[in-house]
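pipeline/complex-builder :: batch 7 item 3
reading input block
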Amino acid sequence: MKHFNTIAVHAGREDLTALGVHSVPIDLSTTYPITSLEAGGATMDSALAGRGHVGNDRVYRRITSPNVERFEVAMTALETSRMAAQGADVSQYGAIGFASGMAAITAVLQSRVLAELPHVVAVRPIYGTSDHVLETSVMGTQVTWTDAEAIKDAITPQTGLIYIETPANPTLQLVNLHQVVLAAGDIPVLVDNTFATPVLQQPLEHGVTFVVHSATKYIGGHGDAMGGVVVTHGEYVHAVRGLRAATGGLMDPFTAYLMQRGLTTLSVRVKAAQETAGEIVSWLTKQKKISNVYYPGLGDSDKDNLVGPGRQMTGPGAMVSFEMAGGFEAAAHVAQHVKLITHAVSLGGIDTLIEHPASFTHRMVDPDARTHAAVLRISVGLEHHEDLIADLEQAIAGA
Ligand code: PLP
């Protein structure tokens, strides 16, 4: 079994030498030649049943495309790499690429509604728009919000999904996946793995059923491609893939090319940004104007999840949140006075971003369930930590 970095560079590229090319070819076809009525018809039947195309007859791009397939092969291999290294059979696993993270998440929700199990048990906090989709039932689900420790009590005969984000956006709180999977029993657990990436956490190895990503973030990694992906197994792959073929949320081929390219440097980027985040966290924790720093491993309850038995993360990552002692006004000042860092939502790119969750990414969340108004979130990029700290220092000085 190959190592993570080797898989990241080579997965989904196995045929390039035979094709006589070195970089992944981009195919922008919206329709494909049909070899026979029977073969094309077989693809039509298979695609809507979520089993992909048959032979070389892809028929139509909404069903699939060569670049999306390459990205899906790579993504599956990375999210299952630790399981495979331990000798597990991962042939039942597959990925489904979407046009955005929300398209990926809503497809999973829709698949559970179609299975007539529309009740979702979810642990806050999660990304604001995911919270909004659950809270407003736009996909036909009904949500019960609960604590990670109380999941079992919230389950009903209609429960079709347990919804978790760890580390959570924006508090970086960790949820112990081993305990959640035990409490869930036969009910599938979804984990939004956007913040950790498969470099730091592979939820499937803990018995999680659906891993979702906003690939717009670390996977693309350069702030120039929007996408989402679901990694799951068996019949769940077919359910989500069939829905994508019918509803049209497919990732576009050029984006898939960029996402696959992003995967090749994912580990290098995540580890470099994580090291810089560590420097920033140790500086932030010494600042008098900052009342709280949120980072995996800082809280007592995080310790087991990072380093204890059944540990699920191999590192704390590169997302950092902190609370200004001066309240909302102070937080607003910092966000608007950084010079090198960009005041912007999103995360996981090469450059450092800062945002105010209560105003932007979590604005739509019930104010009682929302993070404190004085919290700022930083996505640490690849700049030198001294330049980033100098920028934060000058912005915080005026707050
Ligand atoms: N999940 C998390 C943790 C996110 O941060 C985001 C976006 O910020 C999403 C999902 C949604 O992804 P997208 O914006 O690609 O639709």
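note: The chain has a mean pLDDT of 95.
queue -> next item
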